[in-house]
């Protein structure tokens, strides 16, 4: 078997695996999404009920009540119970929101619920992603934008919002509360380029070729799904583009997204 034929066969096998995993991800996302929705809704409602009970306890304490009720409130420490219950509900709501985020990534990985293409400004999408990620930056971190003038392109804005958010989240984790992230955009010869440079820990040589593999992650259990970069790559490729990563351990990483300028379709 020639080397070229072997390469083609390997690519077909990898493509088939990705298709199978995409179908699996789509099924998992669908099954998780509905119960997560009503769990979160119920938790929010339960929190409002706890607030009402807390208000009632406060009202009882401010009025003349029997010794029996007073002793009960004291013995059960209802103030603590209500406060702790609210904390538990807040943590549960946060957990439900994280599940929802994982479902969104799974949908992106399986390319379901895709929005229609529309005309968008890539710089605006980048700026919106930066506004979201800014909340995760430490006091000693800095995020800087150096955006060039870009022509509008036909794309799925929500998808590219996910791309840049995933890439920025990785940079924020890499600099670990102290470092710099620079985002640059430019275009040349009908190609848009977005470069994200961080001064983080970098990526070891032995794993850099695996970072786009589905479900591969170097983070601890519960801290990463391992599909963020896979989703980003698939979205970029679906628009005819590419993602390139270069890194030096201990010094930082550069991720470049290159996209062909898709012109708006003209009416005939």
Give the topology.
Layout: H1 3-61, H2 67-76, H3 78-110, E1 118-120, H4 122-133, E2 140-147, E3 153-155, H5 157-175, E4 178-188, E5 191-198, H6 228-238, E6 242-248, E7 252-260
Notes on the protein architecture:
The chain has 268 residues and is an alpha+beta fold. 54% of the residues lie in helices and 18% in strands. The protein has helices at residues 3-61, 67-76, 78-110, 122-133, 157-175, 228-238; strands at 118-120, 140-147, 153-155, 178-188, 191-198, 242-248, 252-260. Strand 6 (242-248) and strand 7 form a beta hairpin. Helix 3 packs parallel to helix 6 (228-238) and helix 5 (157-175) runs antiparallel to helix 6.
List keywords for this structure.
268 residues; two-stranded antiparallel sheet; alpha+beta; elongated; five-stranded mixed beta sheet
- Rounded to the nearest angstrom, the distance between the terminal CA atoms is 49 Å
Report the total helices: 6
**C-alpha geometry:** elongated
Secondary structure class reads alpha+beta
How do the helices and strands follow one another from N- to C-terminus?
HHHEHEEHEEHEE
| Residue share in helix | 40-55%
In round numbers, the mean pLDDT is: 77
Record field, number of beta strands? 7
Main β-sheet, in a few words? 5 strands, mixed
Q: Please mark out the parts with pLDDT under 50 across 5 or more consecutive residues, or reply none.
A: none
Strand order of the largest sheet: 2-4-5-7-6
Cα radius of gyration in angstroms? 24 Å
Strand content: 15-25%
